[in-house]
Design goal:
Layout: H1 8-20, H2 27-35, H3 37-69, E1 74-81, H4 84-93, H5 100-106, E2 111-117, H6 120-131, E3 137-143, E4 156-165, E5 170-181, H7 182-195, H8 202-236
Parallel strand pairs: 2-5
Antiparallel strand pairs: 1-2, 3-4, 4-5
Length: 237
């Protein structure tokens, strides 16, 4: 996830230039964005605010848990706003009505945060602490750590709704939060590169997918062993 902080107007301007260059090929989509530039800009601003709100919550939790647990549970926090072309591709793929209101209602991962932890137990502790906050509403939870995908993918996904406080109103906004250990994130990054490497011969692609599935088991075993080592150190202290 690329960091999405920065000037939201510059972000929208860059995406508008993409449209003009024809990266978003559909005339219908290009026309929609040109006709709704202000509303699209406002939408991304709201999601950027929600993303900052959730990021701050995890930074505060990290500070508190560092004091009480004598270690830092969060290694890295990454944030991103979905790109315009990715957003429009999803709108087209799922047949979502082409309006800002419909996009906000039906697409839950426009704003995304990834929390990287050293240990699996820290993920579950953070999830419990985060969801216990009275202004966080759980929309959806998918635990691919307890129930990995067939290809070996492991992560815990939340869709949450959080309020943002604007000049004259309060709005509830949805944010996707992903939790991974360092090993899970390393594996997912490599899997992503293989998945989108379109020019690989089929035989090589199948071999890499098979090897990656084996790596998923190895990384999961490593997470368990590292967790056990930490548990023994804690008990011995």
């Amino acid at each position: 996830m690329a960091n999405a902080k920065g000037n939201i107007q510059e972000y929208i301007a860059a995406k508008t230039r993409e449209i003009i260059r024809g990266r978003l090929a559909s005339d219908k989509i290009r026309g929609f964005i040109k006709d709704n530039t202000r509303k699209v800009e406002t939408m991304f601003t709201y999601y950027n605010c929600a993303m900052m709100e959730v990021e701050t919550k995890f930074k505060v939790l990290n500070e508190e848990l560092t004091l009480s647990h004598a270690h830092t549970p969060i290694e890295t926090i990454k944030t991103r706003l979905k790109s315009m072309d990715s957003l429009m591709e999803k709108v087209d793929r799922y047949g979502i009505p082409l309006s800002v209101e419909s996009i906000m209602e039906n697409i839950n991962d426009i704003a995304g945060i990834r929390i990287i932890c050293s240990f699996k137990d820290d993920i579950y502790s953070l999830v419990d602490s985060f969801l216990s906050q009275d202004d966080v509403t759980l929309v959806e939870k998918k635990d691919y750590i307890a129930n990995p995908k067939e290809n070996g993918y492991r992560s815990l996904h939340l869709i949450v709704s959080v309020p943002i406080f604007l000049e004259k109103q309060k709005r509830d906004m949805k944010v996707e939060v992903q939790f991974r250990t360092i090993a899970m994130d390393f594996w997912a990054s490599l899997e992503h590169k293989i998945k989108y490497k379109k020019d690989l011969p089929e035989s090589i692609n199948e071999k890499l997918v098979s090897e990656l599935a084996m790596c998923a088991e190895i990384s999961a075993d490593l997470d368990e062993k590292m967790q056990d080592i930490r548990r023994q150190l804690t008990e011995a202290s």
